């Protein structure tokens, strides 16, 4: 079996100091960065991933997804605008040994990494299948939004899916707990 790690939306705007910060985002970025360093350095005890991919919010004009009066459920402050520093990966991720990056939400809201495509247009599910991936670990920001949507889609598409909660940051305790319950009920392993 081939295992992939999906790093979800660990971008400057979702970490402390960004336009839509999640508490603990920078710490999660550093912890994932450490994991990626061990994986890419082939150190003993390194994580057993065959491929590592990332997703990025990649907004040009996402319509009503952005609002100057956001409700923080369906509408949000402007974030991850293409070409801004906020859209970049958080520097704590260095080095970034991603095998591929999937961009989502150019002209609409997009929560799941499976809505993303590579710069050349390949969809995440197709890319994983082309690389014979059957097992997926998911981490990143935010547990109760994009991590949740990505994990649910992963499981729904038939991948054995696990969420690494120690490598995730959630927006709200209650919605994070509800997301974990929902993911678990959908067959996602919570680790």
TrEMBL record:
State the source organism's domain of life: Bacteria
Alphabetic keyword roster: Hydrolase, Metal-binding, Pyridine nucleotide biosynthesis
Residue ranges constituting the Isochorismatase-like domain according to the UniProt record? 4-189
GO MF entry, a single one: nicotinamidase activity
* Broadest EC class assigned to this enzyme: hydrolase
What Pfam families does this protein map onto? Isochorismatase
* Gene Ontology process terms (BP): pyridine nucleotide biosynthetic process
Q: In which pathway does it act?
A: Cofactor biosynthesis; nicotinate biosynthesis; nicotinate from nicotinamide: step 1/1
Keyword Cell cycle applies: no
Q: What is its EC number?
A: 3.5.1.19
Entry keyword Manganese: no
Q: Per its UniProt record, what SUPFAM superfamilies does this chain match?
A: Isochorismatase-like hydrolases
Cross-referenced InterPro entries: Isochorismatase-like_dom, Isochorismatase-like_sf, Isochorismatase_Nicotinamidase
Q: Which family does it belong to?
A: Belongs to the isochorismatase family.
| Name of this protein | nicotinamidase
Originating species? Nocardioides alpinus
Question: What does UniProt list as this organism's lineage?
Answer: Bacteria, Bacillati, Actinomycetota, Actinomycetes, Propionibacteriales
